[in-house]
Amino acid sequence: MKLLVLACLSPNTGNNTTAERIRSHIESAGHTCELRDAAEFQSPTEMADLLSQTPPFEGALAIHLFRAGRLLLDIQLPFGVIFGGTDINEDVKVKPKRVVMEQVLLKARFAVAFTSKLKEEAELFLLSQSSKIYVQPQGIQTEVTERFCWTEFLRSSGISSEHVDDLRVFLLVCGLRKVKDPLFLVEVFSEWHCENLLNVLIIIGPKIDPVFTVEVEAVVKRTAGVFLAQERSQQELHAAMKRCFAMVNSSISEGMSAAILEAMDLGVPVVARDIPGNSSVVQHDVTGLLYSTPQEFVHQSQRLLSDHELRGRVVHNGKLYVEEHHSLKRERETYQRLVGTLN
Q1: Looking at the chain, which runs of residues are DSSP E strands?
Q2: Residue 22 and residue 339: Cα distance in Å, rounded?
Q3: Separation of alpha carbons 174 and 263, rounded Å
Q4: pLDDT at residue 12 in the model
Q5: Degrees, nearest 5: CA angle 40-42-47
Q6: Where is the Glycosyl transferase family domain (predicted)?
């Protein structure tokens, strides 16, 4: 079967990684799969032009109910959808978007939610048949490049210190856009850095929103102890994660943060903002630490610094959690089975 996979494909984003992984699952079952960026298409007409090619597509899969799903509404092709997170957490609050997403969900053969909570939210806010929505957590696989120099990474991020090995580097992994709220911790972290110069925060991720990126760059430039790193390949990012003291998430909204799960898999403690998408995978004091305010972030980070038993426990439990609940094999089997229903 020839399948189209539509997603938002900004380089080095979670969406891109998820789309590539799902494509590999589908192709390993013997299907042909073409991955296209939803941003390429401005209208159903442009989508129709793509679908007119030979040999024809026999099915489609959209990642994100609104951004990708709406492009499939006017086509005569069986399709499934995967909730992105912001579609169910944010876009449902906007009535015109919600109306479109309800139509997409009604027409889709199946839908996939990364968490039970996301499925419940979809059932609450959208007209949907509950039996159509399957829960399949993201499958996680990490790969660390051997060609990675920690000192060079720090230097290129603007950190020059004689005590590189003594630094406590907190790595905030996110695309630069408002929903990820990378500036949430900046002011308080800088105050904490001034009390102890070994504590530094590095923000790393692709520049998705150009206007917001300029704002982030300006704030970071004038803030002590906070740095902005150039985005890296997935393998380099995993290498940086593995060397950092803790991985940070400050998002306003998440579907399921692959970066959090990757950090857990790499044996790195996670300090994440207490929002539904994060608390569904981070159990406070068990698999990671949660915070609601910038001040609480500092408090939880100080606990991580002073309590070695706590650090060891969340690292151990986090890795076990990913191994048990985010199996790549189970994810592959689920998508291969669901794609089979598009025949």
Answers
A1: 2-7, 32-37, 59-63, 79-82, 110-113, 133-135, 168-173, 199-204, 226-229, 246-249, 270-273, 289-291
A2: 11
A3: 13
A4: 63
A5: 75
A6: 163-319
Tell me the average pLDDT across 39-63: 87
Q: How far apart are CA 303 and CA 179, in angstroms?
A: 27
**Which residues touch 321 (CB under 8 Å, ≥6 apart)?**
264, 281, 283, 287
Tokens of residue 296, six digits: 């609480």
Could you report the per-residue pLDDT of 118-144, keeping only the tens digit for each? 898 899 888 777 789 999 999 999 999
- CA 30, CA 191: separation in Å to the nearest integer? 55
Residues 186, 220: contact at Cβ < 8 Å? yes
Reading the block at residue 69, the tokens are 């799903």
Query: Hey, what are 46's tokens?
Result: 């442009």
- Encoding tokens for residue 251? 């998002």
